[in-house]
């Protein structure tokens, strides 16, 4: 007789129940690691979570490589992004059918962290600084990955990384300060659509802490994420993050305690120690033995694990995806899709009429990226590479140079030479070797030995020349140049921090002591800028391709400190444009950049565009296609316009296009066409619970073109600080010359809500709003006013949670207890939090729930933190962390509604809440 869990006529929840009942406790525990143990007596095979598929299948060999995620989003085309997800899912299946143990069907994509700060090392992995647009693109890509067959998953997409994760600097130990409004209005909305629509069926927490608590222990996993999900939601840890709970983060004393807490918080699968699961399973067994976990806790996690396996069709006789095979990998259809995605992601930032190119017979292709395609950490292996040079060479005559300086290096002992067999570098050679010097920005340089065409790297501690370029998780091919006396320099290896020294045998090796570094004289034997100028002058047009190396200029584990284009590349751009005014700068990067030449006639940007990049670039440069891409991030004029990298409060810091008050280099939503568009007849009305708008868009130019019509709103009166503009919808339209189209928007009034900290819920206020429509967040062509009938937020009274304040200064958000709740802690004398509009009628006393390792004083002042009337003072005694005292104090008479400042007279005081009460 067939077991119920194998009977397809039985509902999946009942099948899971049957299977869980059949498993022993030990067998259940074995399912809680990334490498799930088989249960042979029941016919359960091994199962592994975690196949990388961010913009194509990664790490498993040649597969179709699509543009980076930020490039896919720049298409502003969810259907295209969905099709890329479908193609990627097919290739995952093909690899899985060939090697089930090597390619699992739980894919770790997409990344949905809003791109709050462009300096984030993983900027290229996300979609947009706007959470709504991020959610749209994430749902599209995840929907493609999961497939369209009813009742069965093609793959099981996993959203990364929950929560408030935009820094690599000390990422495992930093805590992201997240006020309630930023949490509910900015961070959570990016995750919601893909989960709520069932497009994503799993989530991965992030390495960082949020308000003092490790993200892997967040109560929001159960309270929010699982409340959104229409079915079981699998939660998998990030790699080695569980071990951080006791090690780097020190949040728990022992791993059994930490792992028990993680399971109770909602974690289902431990990604720890690669395929060596025994240590993790041992800690879980100890947690059970010590009563830290119950079998019911394990059962809950096992249900989530098994639910994914059932929905992937593991226990079915057949699924619609069984016949997918290796023929789909890099098939012609996927190659065409890669070209389409790359072409439609290109953003025209500037154009004085030079583009599209016409009557061109000779192009100078210049730059470090002119004849190279880069793989990022989450790229697949390129099955082939169409570079900018190759793509343009198919159209007309091209000449090419990388425009890098060719140099010699010499010390007092002699010139530096490279072993022609790729071995060690030494200073004992009689003939100097020559090296090409690549400037990747941020002070990072790479050297390529001309004799071998291979890059200088470090093997052990010895400098060798045997690599094709910067590569690997630990990049060992980049150096910094530090000035030394008499015009010499010392090379410092970036990965290790060691210096380059010369041994008695003359071989260059790394040394720890800067005083042991060899002083090197660098002589330029061929100037990259002069070479660029010469080639540019000889051509009809110069196309200078510049940008970042995805493994060098910021990446996972490394943020960038500057937005500036590498100085060496910037100089090449200036030299080429000076030699030939008909110069196009093509930027290829995973993040916004700035440059110094303000006279460039044309500038194009794309993310690293995958295998078909060169064809796509040629299509746009020659006008075969209108540039369709639009920026999904603000391009600032300098990193000095950005708040601190660790400042996650975009509202208080005026960050992102939502709140930024400056004039950006290029705004969110920006992107030019080869034609022009006119906007007319904007009409807006409130129809019940929907705001409806329509506008007429006309192609007023002489070419067919593509326009991304963008709708924004602004609430003009509010109890709280509102965004200057917020994207509410968009439509991509293709118009022939003279053609018009009516574009419509249907916006639920409920979407105009903000998070009301006074009542812990979203609220729509009665207020006037302005609807704006145009080409970008600042190029808004028309606007119209509309009124919304909603609520008026009443004054506060009674209990006030400390984290639910309105404004603050010198405050850190911390965990109230290890399991749940947020509190605030003062960082300096005079720190304060503000509660607006507190009703004090009849209030005669207040209780502060607070604590401090050193003791302290809290004062409540009316209307001003320095000079306002002191209404109550609370002496806070010394307490252990997470131990609070309820401190009562009389309240001076202050009838009416007032703004209250809670002032911390010294640092290190933690406040959980205030309770205002009446008289006897």
UniProtKB/TrEMBL annotation:
The keyword Signal applies. Catalyzes the hydrolysis of a non-reducing terminal alpha-L-arabinopyranosidic linkage in ginsenoside Rb2 (alpha-L-arabinopyranosyl-(1->6)-alpha-D-glucopyranosyl) to release alpha-D-glucopyranosyl (Rd). It is not able to hydrolyze alpha-L-arabinofuranosyl-(1->6)-alpha-D-glucopyranosyl (Rc). It holds the Pfam family Fn3-like. One of its GO terms (molecular function) is carbohydrate binding. Residues 707-777 form the Fibronectin type III-like domain. This is Exo-alpha-(1->6)-L-arabinopyranosidase. GO terms for biological process: arabinan catabolic process; xylan catabolic process. InterPro entries: Actin-crosslinking, BXL, CBM6, Cellulose-bd_IV, Fn3-like, Galactose-bd-like_sf, GH, Glyco_hydro_3_C. It comes from Nonomuraea phyllanthi. Keywords: Hydrolase, Signal. The keyword Magnesium does not apply. Belongs to the glycosyl hydrolase 3 family. Residues 795-918 form the Cellulose binding type IV domain.
């Amino acid at each position: 007789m067939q077991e119920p869990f194998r009977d397809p006529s039985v509902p999946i929840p009942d099948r899971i129940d049957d299977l869980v009942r059949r498993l022993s406790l030990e067998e259940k525990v074995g399912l809680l690691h990334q490498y799930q143990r088989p249960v042979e007596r029941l016919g359960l095979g091994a199962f592994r979570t975690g196949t990388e598929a961010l913009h194509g299948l990664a790490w498993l060999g040649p597969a179709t490589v699509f543009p980076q995620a930020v490039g896919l989003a720049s298409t502003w085309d969810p259907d295209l992004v969905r099709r890329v997800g479908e193609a990627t899912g097919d290739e995952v299946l093909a690899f899985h059918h060939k090697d089930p143990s090597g390619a699992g069907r739980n894919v770790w994509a997409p990344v949905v962290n809003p791109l709050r700060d462009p300096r984030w090392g993983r900027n290229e992995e996300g979609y947009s600084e706007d959470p709504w647009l991020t959610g749209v693109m994430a749902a599209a890509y995840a929907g493609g990955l999961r497939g369209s067959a009813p009742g069965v998953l093609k793959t099981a997409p996993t959203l990364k990384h929950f929560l408030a994760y935009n820094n690599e600097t000390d990422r495992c130990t930093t805590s992201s300060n997240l006020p309630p409004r930023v949490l509910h209005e900015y961070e959570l909305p990016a995750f919601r659509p893909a989960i709520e629509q069932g497009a994503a069926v799993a989530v991965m927490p992030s390495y960082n802490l949020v308000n003092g608590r490790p993200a892997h222990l967040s109560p929001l996993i159960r309270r929010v994420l699982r409340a959104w999900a229409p079915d079981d939601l699998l939660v998998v840890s990030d790699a080695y993050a569980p071990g951080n709970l006791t090690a780097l983060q020190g949040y728990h004393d022992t791993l059994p305690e930490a792992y028990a807490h993680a399971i109770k918080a909602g974690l289902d699968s431990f990604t720890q120690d690669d395929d060596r699961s025994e240590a993790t399973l041992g800690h879980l067994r100890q947690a059970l033995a010590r009563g830290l976990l119950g079998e019911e806790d394990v059962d809950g996690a096992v249900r989530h694990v098994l639910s994914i396996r059932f929905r992937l069709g593991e226990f079915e006789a057949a699924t619609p995806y069984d016949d997918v095979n290796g023929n789909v990998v890099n098939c012609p259809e996927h190659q065409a899709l890669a070209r389409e995605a790359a072409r439609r992601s290109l953003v025209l930032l500037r154009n004085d009429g030079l583009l599209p190119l016409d009557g061109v017979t000779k192009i100078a292709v210049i730059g470090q990226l002119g004849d190279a395609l880069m793989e990022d950490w989450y790229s697949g292996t390129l099955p082939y590479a169409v570079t900018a040079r190759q793509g343009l060479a198919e159209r007309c005559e091209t000449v090419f140079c990388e425009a890098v300086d060719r140099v010699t290096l010499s010390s007092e002992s002699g010139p530096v030479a490279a072993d022609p067999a790729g071995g060690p570098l030494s200073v004992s050679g009689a003939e100097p070797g020559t090296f090409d010097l690549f400037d990747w920005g941020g002070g990072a340089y790479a050297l390529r030995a001309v004799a071998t065409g291979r890059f200088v790297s470090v093997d052990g501690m010895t400098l060798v020349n045997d690599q094709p370029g910067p590569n690997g998780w630990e990049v060992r091919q980049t150096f910094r140049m530090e000035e030394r006396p008499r015009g010499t320099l010392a090379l410092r290896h970036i990965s290790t921090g060691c210096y380059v020294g010369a041994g008695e045998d003359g071989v260059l090796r790394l040394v720890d002591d800067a005083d042991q570094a060899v002083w090197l004289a660098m002589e330029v034997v061929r100037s990259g800028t002069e070479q660029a100028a010469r080639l540019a002058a000889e051509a009809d047009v110069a196309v200078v391709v510049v940008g970042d190396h995805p493994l060098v200029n910021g990446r996972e584990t490394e943020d960038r400190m500057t937005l500036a284009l590498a100085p060496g590349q910037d100089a090449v751009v200036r030299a080429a444009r000076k030699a030939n005014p008909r110069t196009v700068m093509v930027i290829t990067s995973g993040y916004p950049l700035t440059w110094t030449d303000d006279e460039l006639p044309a500038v194009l940007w794309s993310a690293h565009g995958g295998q078909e990049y060169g064809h796509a670039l040629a299509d746009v440069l020659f006008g075969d296609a209108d540039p369709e891409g639009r920026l999904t991030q603000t391009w600032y004029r300098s990193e000095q316009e950005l708040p601190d990298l660790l400042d996650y409060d975009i509202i208080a810091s005026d960050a992102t296009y939502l709140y930024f008050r400056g004039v950006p280099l290029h705004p969110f939503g920006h992107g030019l066409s080869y034609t022009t568009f006119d906007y007319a007849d904007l009409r807006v009305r409130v129809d019940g619970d929907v705001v409806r708008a329509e506008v007429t868009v006309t192609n007023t130019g002489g070419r067919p073109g593509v326009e991304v019509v963008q709708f924004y709103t602004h609430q003009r009166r509010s109890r709280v600080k509102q965004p200057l503009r917020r994207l509410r919808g968009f439509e991509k339209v293709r118009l022939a010359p003279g053609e018009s189209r009516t574009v419509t928007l249907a916006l639920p009034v409920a979407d105009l809500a903000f998070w009301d900290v006074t009542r812990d819920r979203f609220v729509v206020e009665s207020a006037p709003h302005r609807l704006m429509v145009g080409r970008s967040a600042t190029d808004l062509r028309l606007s119209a006013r509309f009124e919304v009938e909603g609520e008026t937020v009443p004054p506060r009274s009674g209990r006030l949670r400390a984290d639910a304040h309105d404004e603050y200064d010198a405050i850190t958000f911390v965990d109230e207890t290890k399991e749940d709740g947020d509190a605030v802690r003062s960082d300096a004398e005079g720190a304060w939090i503000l509660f607006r509009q507190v009703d004090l009628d009849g209030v005669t006393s207040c209780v502060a729930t607070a604590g401090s390792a050193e003791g302290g004083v809290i004062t409540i002042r009316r209307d001003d933190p320095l000079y306002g009337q002191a209404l109550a003072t609370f002496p806070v005694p010394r307490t252990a962390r997470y131990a609070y005292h309820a401190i009562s104090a009389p309240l001076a008479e202050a009838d009416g509604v007032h703004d209250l400042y809670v002032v911390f007279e010294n640092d290190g005081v933690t406040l959980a809440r205030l309770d205002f009460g009446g008289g006897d």
